[in-house]
Automatic annotation (TrEMBL):
Region (Disordered): 239-281
Organism this protein belongs to: Promicromonospora citrea
Pfam family, one: Methyltransf_25
This protein's name: Methyltransferase domain-containing protein
Residue stretches of biased makeup (Basic and acidic residues): 265-275
InterPro entries reported for this sequence: Methyltransf_25 (IPR041698), SAM-dependent_MTases_sf (IPR029063)
All residue ranges annotated as the Methyltransferase domain in the record: 95-180
């Protein structure tokens, strides 16, 4: 550890004191710790953090947010996500803010997209600290306390770079409207490809992806809910008409599953606008 660096212990984490950017990894107490979010050091490579560690990190981020959170980047990324939703012609009636934390992102969605926003998060401490409107605590693997097809859009801001458990991604899929539901998320750096793999495995199809202007290495992905596909990475002409027994998918489902295919975004479908997405009692 360098002479001029000072660390403050928080459970299994270390917080670098001061404004200096530390090295990618440090040795401390006979263990290797890895840098995450500039000032935090975690006991496993960030891509391998389990939900308990993610929760510890997020709660430390919350208590130290004045220092560790770059609000300019945060606001710019959320604005880019909303722009993608608008420019794709989506007009979501009901939105779920997955990993809502203190709920600030949900408030922005209420102002910018729709008043009908519900939030959920596995961190009771985050929800208790800020008491965001219409938000529930959930277990990291789910289930989610919402009826199938409730949401037109799932919004996940600074969440998907964590290793979200597969059953939770499937739950998000279930709670999204079957005729045109979407998920919009940001991600960055080395976490992009592993997260995309997890999303595809949970039957989300990447409809489009854009870089965030002015925030290096950051992307906004718009995902479409797809039903079931055998081989999501094949070209459409390779798998069209190859529906296997029990697949239940149609050619349209297959097209939607192909990353970067020319799938047309679907606007708010009729009949869902009266569904109340408020938190169940
Ligand atoms: C970095 S914070 C972002 C909070 C908020 N979206 C924002 O941008 O300010 C990530 C949030 O995702 C939540 N989270 C991470 N994994 C989760 C999971 N499997 N289920 C539910 N919430 C999760 C964390 O508890 C944390 O509050």
């Amino acid at each position: 550890m360098g002479d001029t660096m000072r660390f403050i212990a928080h459970g299994s984490l270390l917080l670098l004191d001061g404004d200096m950017l530390g090295p990618r990894a440090i040795e401390h107490g006979g263990r290797t710790l890895y840098r995450f979010m500039d000032y935090l050091y975690v006991p496993v490579p960030p891509a391998d953090m389990d939900p308990h560690l993610v929760q510890e990190v997020c709660e430390l981020r919350l208590s130290e947010r004045a220092r560790v959170l770059d609000r300019r980047i945060h606001a710019r990324v959320q604005a880019a996500m909303i722009k993608v939703v608008r420019e794709c012609g989506l007009a979501p009636g009901n939105v779920l803010d997955f990993g809502t934390g203190t709920g600030e992102s949900a408030e922005t969605l209420r102002t910018e997209l729709t008043p009908r926003v519900a939030g959920c998060d596995m961190s009771w401490a985050s929800l208790a600290a800020a008491r965001p409107r219409n938000a529930v605590t959930v277990a990291p693997h789910g289930p989610l306390p919402f009826a199938s097809g409730t949401f037109d859009l799932v919004h996940a801001l600074f969440v998907m770079h964590f290793k979200i458990p597969a059953p939770m991604l499937t739950e998000l899929h279930r709670c999204t409207a079957s005729g045109g539901g979407h998920l919009v998320a940001n991600c960055y750096g080395d976490s992009i490809e592993p997260y995309r793999e997890r999303m595809r495995a949970a039957n989300w199809g990447l409809a489009m992806s854009v870089p965030v202007t002015g925030v290096a290495g950051h992307v906004i992905d718009l995902w479409e809910r797809v039903r079931r596909v055998e081989r999501p990475h094949c070209r459409v002409d390779q798998i069209a008409g190859t529906k296997s027994a029990g697949d239940g998918g149609s050619r349209m489902d297959v097209e939607r599953a192909v990353p970067n295919c020319d799938a047309k975004p679907v606007t708010e479908s009729e009949g869902r606008s009266r569904i109340d997405c408020s938190t169940p009692e």
